[in-house]
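Dear Dr. H.,

I hope your travels went smoothly. While you were away I took the liberty of generating a structure for the chain from your last submission, since the lab meeting agenda had it listed for discussion. I wanted you to have the full record in hand beforehand rather than looking at slides cold. The sequence, exactly as received, is reproduced here:
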Amino acid sequence: MKSLLAGLGLALVGSQLVACAESQDAGEECLPGDIDCYESSGGKEDAFGSGANDPARMSQQLNYRLAELPKKGTRTKPAWKDSHPAAVGKAPVAWADTYWPTIEGGHNTRFQGKTEKSPIEKYDAAFNNAPGCETFPSKMYGEGAKAEWDTYLKCAGPATKWQSETFQSAGQIHDGKDNDNDGVTDDQGEDGNVDGMATWWGTCHAWAPASLMLPEPQKSVTANGVTFSVGDIKALMQNMFDRTSAIMLGGRCNAKEIKHDPTISANDPCSDLNPGAMHVVITNFLGINNLPLVEDRTANFEVWNQAVMGYEITKQATISNTKANQCVGAAASNKWSYNKDAKKLTEVRMTVQYLTESGAEATPVGFENNIRTDDYHYILELNGDGKIVGGRYCTDSSNDHVDFLWAPTGTFSASNPSVTTSKVKELIAKAFQADAPTGPEKVFTSTGTSSIPDNIATGASLDVAVTGLTGKQSLAVTVDITHTFVGDLTVELLRDGQRVKVLRQNTGGSAKNIAETYTLSANEVGGTVNGTYTLKVVDNAAQDVGTINTVKLAFSAVQ
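The corresponding predicted structure, in token form, is as follows:
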């Protein structure tokens, strides 16, 4: 990943910011990180400020020209494709997960039931020679919690004990002490916190980069006699991303309430992220390039890190000084006083797509059902060359905007001293190893054809009856589809009316016809193998039609 980031000139920055001097063309202004000035040296300040909102913190090869910045961008390629080639074509570009709330146990949550050990307990059993406890405390905090946890921690393995006691001071919620001096011991006080622990604390700061930098496991694996489900492995992936090196844009706001004030700087920690800087970075990272990007989408003191999956500019139009002042809540005037370098103002509405949390699941989740959107409304300031030099939120976004953006660099480690990154990577690698067949293939083929209607949600279906199979089975699905614009199509496999897997979704653009084989692991196929399988194809846009010609299902028994 470092090589990918380096290709855009990304680098870690400290107190010394890197910026550019005048362009080789004396007639143009050179902005921080401006791609036009990439070979230059020296520095100068501009309306972004010389601090946390300087886009040069993110890259030294940014395009600032508004007219050249794409109005739409979507994450389509996995950031991990070079580091995990075995997962390409099998895992989605990102994956949803719970943020593992610390108040509920974090990575020591027995999410599959009280008798199924937690992800961190399984790690101890497999890699720390610590089988751990058979039973689990009935509560995290409250009356009687201390006695239960005292007993549990005597038999817990080292990684489990650290996660339950030290991570985010989790042990304070059941230690029998009033740690926050609010008169309440091991329970919620008037502020809603439990002995100083906020209920929103967890590992979204680890999930967001891990979901972009690592592939989602597609099957359960066994290591040293311990079986890890997909959800277990994803929790451990988050665990090893607890410490993540990153480059950051914007300052963190620590205020519980934000009140609009048109007189303060757009670079103030509770007024930023400066929308001009946000526009430059998001369009460069997702519109021009395909780089990992994370947002803290809440402007106040809470931090909710979400992977940014795409954006769309729904309005981009020149605006007068008078109307711009009205938009940002300033006093009525035909002069724009916020940035003396602004020669032109543009009103923008941007919709940002982000990845939201799922529940803890034992099987793959993907991301398609966990995309949410936020809308932002702001004024961009342009210089005489049409380059973005700053910006300001309009009043409908001034209290509800991105707090900061950051990009993981690819360097990460677990804070838990008893978790080794290499062991977690072993589990990820095993999750993409091919299932070893134990017998000959059994093939089932469709009969007849099915016409794909144009832009109708019910689509077309072709059934294949599967009988006589026992045990775990991997599956190869071979399809032959005629269609004049395959980018319109969603292709999914169902069993007895329930989705097994989305095989293809609106990819391929204007190409014609699909003749491909898709492989499913035994974990994806599931325990109930026999039934009526259905290939469902939906055309999601107008003007093209096609036909499902054949579907072949080849099952192989695996260990």
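Two observations you may find useful: The chain is about 15% helix and 25% strand. Residues 102-202 form one domain.

With kind regards,
E. W.
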